[in-house]
Amino acid sequence: MSEETIFSKIIRREIPADILYQDDLVTAFRDIQPQAPTHILIIPNHLIPTANDIKASDEKALGRMMSVAAKLAEEAGIAEDGYRLIMNCNKHGGQEVYHIHMHLVGGQPLGPILTRQS
Ligand code: AMP
């Protein structure tokens, strides 16, 4: 049994968050430390700790995360100019919260996706 994170409390509305969308499968809310004018997190309502834990049975929720990202990008007015969808995994990926989440980031040019670490 994986340990819940703060994101489970956001899903259950036990702690405050700026929730933009919620349905039976996913929840989307504004990142508390935005890295760009638009920075939204889209998460499955059930706990999947990392991308390594994604199973075929999660495909419906993962697909919903993608379609909700597209809808929210459109609503934020950043669809035409473009944006970035990011999912970090584990230590090397820089994952901090162990409940998978897709970052929807945009509203300005984002630069190269990666800079090589020496
Ligand atoms: P990651 O490094 O991919 O695990 O990203 C975790 C993200 O969660 C960071 O961008 C944090 O700013 C964000 N975050 C952490 N706690 C909260 C919270 N209570 N509400 C909204 N965003 C949060």
Overall description:
With 118 residues, the protein is an alpha+beta fold. It has one domain: 2-Layer Sandwich (HIT family, subunit A), CATH 3.30.428.10. It contains 3 helices and 5 strands. The model has no long low-confidence stretch (mean pLDDT 96). It binds adenosine monophosphate.
Write the layout of secondary structure elements.
Layout: H1 6-11, E1 19-22, E2 26-30, E3 38-44, H2 59-76, E4 83-86, H3 90-93, E5 102-106
Antiparallel strand pairs: 1-2, 2-3, 3-5, 4-5
The chain binds adenosine monophosphate.
Primary descriptors:
118 residues; five-stranded antiparallel sheet; HIT family, subunit A; 3 helices; alpha+beta; binds adenosine monophosphate
Q: What is the percent of helical residues?
A: 10-25%
Q: How would you name the CATH homologous superfamily?
A: HIT-like
CATH fold node name: HIT family, subunit A
Shape: globular
Give unreliable regions as ranges.
none
Number of helices: 3
Number of DSSP E strands:
5
Cα Rg:
14 Å
- How much of the residues is beta strand, in percent? 15-25%
The kinds of small molecule bound in this structure are: adenosine monophosphate
Mean model confidence by pLDDT: 96
Order of helices and strands: HEEEHEHE
Helix/strand-derived category reads alpha+beta
Number of domains: 1
**Main sheet specs:** 5 strands, antiparallel
* CATH C-level category: Alpha Beta
Strand order of the largest sheet: 1-2-3-5-4
What is the CATH-assigned architecture?
2-Layer Sandwich
End-to-end CA span: 37 Å
